[in-house]
Specification:
Layout lengths: L6 H33 L2 H10 L6 E3 L20 E3 L5 E3 L8 E6 L4 H17 L6 E6 L4 H11 L5 E3 L4 H5 L7 E5 L5 E6 L4 H8 L1
Length: 206
């Protein structure tokens, strides 16, 4: 009997076929992971950055023109740039198509601390099905102070720092906390000054 028809020969070919199949599956998995990484939004990467305890993204209005915008209900929200620690950037305009909440706060602000659990709960509830983005904007504090706050309150949404105060000026914010609820078209639907109660938060998200 020829060796190519022997059981050992067939077994060897089966092992080769299985090895080729496993290699194909591995290549497909690597391709999918790389594609997901390439398509990841920088604002999503901000969450990983804050959880690692590293430097936080910062906000600026560099090269931004906000001629027809206003931080008031019924008007397009002022645009801004978020600079990631790795040098990448994203803008508020890039998030058009998603509902966005901009929450401006500080670690020393008692009402800010009180409302944070409600914001975290809303973010975890609506981020998947509704695509909700909550951007927690700290008012010009250090990375260390913000990192401690993030860990203490278990923040899962993107956290950025407005070191220059440009965003607070653009959004005419003098009281903390302040929140801006922006629809999928980039228009502010609700401007809320002061602490958000669970009921007020739910109503504003509708």
């Amino acid at each position: 009997m020829s060796d190519r028809y022997s059981p050992s020969s067939r077994s060897g070919k089966q092992r080769q076929a299985m090895a080729v199949l496993l290699l194909g599956v591995l290549v497909a998995m690597v391709t999918i992971v790389l594609a997901l990484r390439d398509n990841a939004s920088p604002i999503g990467e901000a969450v990983a950055i804050q959880q690692d305890g590293g430097r936080f993204p910062v906000i600026s209005l560099q090269n931004i023109t906000n001629g027809n915008t206003s931080p008031s209900a019924g008007h397009p929200a002022p645009n801004f740039v978020i600079h990631m620690p790795d040098g990448s950037t994203t803008t508020l305009a890039d998030l058009k198509g998603k509902p966005v909440v901009i929450n401006i706060w500080a670690t020393w602000c008692p009402p800010c601390r009180m409302e944070m659990p409600h914001l975290v709960r809303a973010y975890e509830t609506y981020k998947e099905d509704d695509g909700l983005v909550i951007i927690a904007v700290d008012d010009a504090e250090s990375d260390q102070a913000v990192a401690s706050f993030v860990q203490e309150h278990k923040l899962t949404m993107p956290v950025v720092i407005d070191h220059s105060g440009e965003l607070l000026r653009a959004y005419k914010t003098q009281s903390l906390p302040s929140s801006f609820f922006i629809d999928r078209n980039g228009v502010i639907q609700v401007r809320w000054i002061g602490m958000l109660t669970p009921d007020a938060l739910e109503r504003s998200l509708k």
